[in-house]
């Protein structure tokens, strides 16, 4: 199996090393193409107005001045054009990609682009306590359990137009309580806020920030799974259409007079 690895934390991120260890437990045919700098929160963006500058770090290990989406396209459509990957692993992300995180995440976007290109893809993220900081991250959790999760997903089969979003809980490997196949959750929208600050010259600037808040994760969601120290596996589909609403709207417009359209 030929595996392509990318991420959004950048080519020097510790999670990229963890992803490579996971991949090498499955295959020795590995390519790495990762962003030159951190691209967290860029979502599924393309670099259309800037050149893509590629730098070879070592054999089959490249840094690209671009987004995770750019990295996957560069790998599949150029570096690996004659022998494309059988699997794309995106991650391991420093921090969770749960609930609405998936709409912002460059990690998810790397896997999404692979799926668009017809390649099975798995996004891997290692949760940590956001308010305690990244010093508390248990990389050994993803490293210990990652290969088994990837093997199980491959053996079960990843459908076309579906990517797998895997989140490892913020705990030591031995504290993992199992694996949960989950739905994408939803947090309280009260947790996000704008923090106002001033620079050294008294000029205002602002940060998007998050505050602690109490809310109950829904049953069967990715949020609840990691809260219970379970590995969350969420299949995400490319089709964002709300099909019940399509039916309802179609009926509404069919019933109305055509002259109003």
Characterization of the model:
The protein is α/β, with parallel strands linked by helices and 261 residues long. The chain contains seven helices and eleven strands. A nine-stranded mixed beta sheet has the order 3-4-2-1-5-6-7-11-8, sandwiched between helices. A two-stranded antiparallel sheet has the order 9-10. Helix 2 packs parallel to helix 4. The longest helix has 18 residues. The radius of gyration is 20 Å and the shape is globular. The model has no long low-confidence stretch (mean pLDDT 94).
Helix count from the secondary structure assignment: 7
Strand order of the largest sheet: 3-4-2-1-5-6-7-11-8
Distance between the termini: 53 Å
Described by strand count, sense and barrel closure, the largest sheet is: 9 strands, mixed
Q: Label the overall shape.
A: globular
Question: What structural keywords apply?
Answer:
261 residues; alpha/beta; nine-stranded mixed sheet; 7 helices; globular
């Amino acid at each position: 199996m030929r595996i392509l690895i990318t991420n959004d934390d950048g080519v020097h991120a510790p999670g990229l090393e963890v992803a490579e260890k996971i991949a090498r437990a499955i295959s020795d045919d590995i390519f790495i193409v990762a962003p030159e700098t951190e691209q967290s929160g860029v979502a599924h963006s393309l670099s259309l107005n800037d050149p893509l500058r590629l730098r070879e770090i070592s054999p089959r290990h490249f840094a690209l001045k671009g987004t995770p989406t750019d990295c996957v396209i560069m790998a599949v459509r150029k570096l690996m054009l004659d022998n494309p990957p059988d699997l794309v692993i995106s991650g391991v992300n420093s921090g969770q990609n749960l609930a609405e995180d998936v709409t912002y995440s460059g990690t998810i976007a790397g896997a999404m682009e692979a799926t668009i290109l017809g390649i099975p893809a798995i996004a891997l993220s290692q949760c940590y306590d956001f308010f305690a900081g990244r010093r508390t991250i248990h990389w050994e959790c993803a490293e210990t359990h990652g290969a088994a999760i990837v093997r199980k997903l491959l053996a079960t089969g990843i459908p076309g137009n579906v990517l797998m979003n895997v989140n490892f809980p913020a705990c030591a490997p031995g504290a993992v309580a199992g694996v949960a196949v989950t739905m994408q959750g939803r947090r309280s929208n009260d947790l996000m806020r704008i923090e106002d600050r001033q620079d050294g010259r008294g000029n205002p600037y602002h940060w998007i920030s998050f505050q602690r808040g109490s809310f109950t994760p829904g049953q069967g969601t990715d949020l609840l799974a990691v809260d219970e120290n379970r590995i969350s596996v969420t299949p995400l589909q490319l089709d964002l259409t709300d099909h019940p609403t399509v039916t309802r709207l179609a009926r509404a417009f069919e019933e109305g007079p055509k002259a109003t359209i």
